[in-house]
């Protein structure tokens, strides 16, 4: 039967599959166009300490595909990764983040803020990654300590020596590192202790059910204990309720990010929030 379908099998192709291929091709072309015409923007979500002071923000990319159409990373980052377009996009993110940090440095009330930036696996694995970050830091004349790069566990597993070398090279000039979505990967303590990290970021999936789920509470306490053992700072993402914040504080977490404090927002709104803080 299969043989019979043979070279005409393309006709039996599910039309929905063809449609999704067409969509993908169109999306890829649009993505390239978006890069060329500057359709990306960064939103900023505040990060707070246990007293409620804003200590920094995470930059989160959005694609303004049309005036009324703002796309979230879940709608394009994967394709950007697959096509390699994440490289110019990632470079734009770092450059834009450095520009924002530079503007903060000129303002007495914002000088202390740290901006966290997500880095994709492909981007980090580029040979030129270290020099590209250094060049952006230099170009904007920023204090590298105000820049924090968020990596994920999975992207660090491939070549640990190379990973460590790159992180060390950037840490030498002051750039900080956070391990995003922590707890969802397979890092052992043995492995973690070799990484020159500054922070562990507790994944929001553990925070979500912290009030109801005893095993999530145990995981969170374990992560916080690990962070303390390794002398790392720890931040929880996805904090939506006062109850979650309180439990996290009880467990020794001292930095927070989530809808309870603010959604990711355009820089003007982030500035307004800072004014009130
Ligand atoms: P992430 O780095 O783990 O970012 C946290 C995500 O959680 C963000 O989704 C944020 O909007 C969302 N979030 C924040 N607070 C809450 C909360 O209280 N509750 C819930 N349910 N969610 C919350 P977003 O902005 O859609 O980004 C998704 C992912 O896309 C990011 O996850 C990151 O992996 C990736 N991403 C975002 N910006 C960039 C970028 O510039 N470059 C790269 N390579 N990836 C990016
Ligand atoms: Mg992140
Ligand atoms: Mg995360
Ligand atoms: Mg995540």
TrEMBL record:
| Positions of the EAL domain | 24-277
Subcellular location field: Cell membrane
What's this protein's name?
cyclic-guanylate-specific phosphodiesterase
User: Organism source for this protein?
Assistant: Methylomonas koyamae
Task: Show the taxonomic lineage.
Answer: Bacteria, Pseudomonadati, Pseudomonadota, Gammaproteobacteria, Methylococcales
Q: Which residues of the full protein are shown?
A: 520 to 796 of 796
């Amino acid at each position: 039967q299969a043989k019979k379908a043979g070279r005409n099998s393309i006709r039996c192709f599910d039309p929905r599959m063809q449609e999704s291929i067409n969509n993908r091709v169109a999306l890829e072309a649009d993505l390239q166009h978006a890069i060329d015409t500057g359709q990306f923007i960064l939103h900023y979500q505040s990060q707070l300490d246990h007293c409620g002071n804003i200590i920094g923000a995470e930059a989160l990319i959005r694609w303004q595909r049309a005036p009324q159409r703002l796309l979230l990373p879940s709608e394009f980052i994967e394709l950007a990764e697959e096509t390699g377009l994440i490289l110019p996009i990632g470079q734009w993110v770092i450059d834009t983040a450095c520009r924002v940090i530079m503007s903060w440095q000129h303002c007495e009330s914002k000088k202390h803020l740290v901006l966290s930036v997500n880095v994709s696996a492909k981007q980090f694995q580029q040979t030129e990654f270290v020099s590209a970050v250094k060049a952006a830091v230099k170009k904007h004349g920023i204090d590298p300590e105000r820049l924090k790069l968020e990596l994920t566990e999975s992207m660090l597993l491939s070549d640990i020596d190379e990973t460590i070398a790159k992180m060390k090279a950037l840490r030498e000039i002051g750039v900080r590192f956070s391990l995003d979505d922590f707890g969802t990967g397979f890092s052992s303590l043995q492995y973690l202790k070799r990484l020159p990290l500054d922070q562990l970021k507790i994944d929001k999936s553990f925070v979500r059910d912290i009030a109801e789920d005893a095993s999530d509470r145990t995981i969170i306490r374990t992560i916080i204990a690990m962070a303390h053992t390794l002398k790392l700072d720890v931040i929880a993402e996805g904090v939506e309720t006062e109850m979650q914040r309180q439990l996290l504080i009880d467990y020794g977490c001292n930095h927070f990010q989530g809808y309870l404090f603010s959604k990711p927002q355009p820089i003007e709104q982030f500035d307004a929030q800072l004014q009130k803080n």
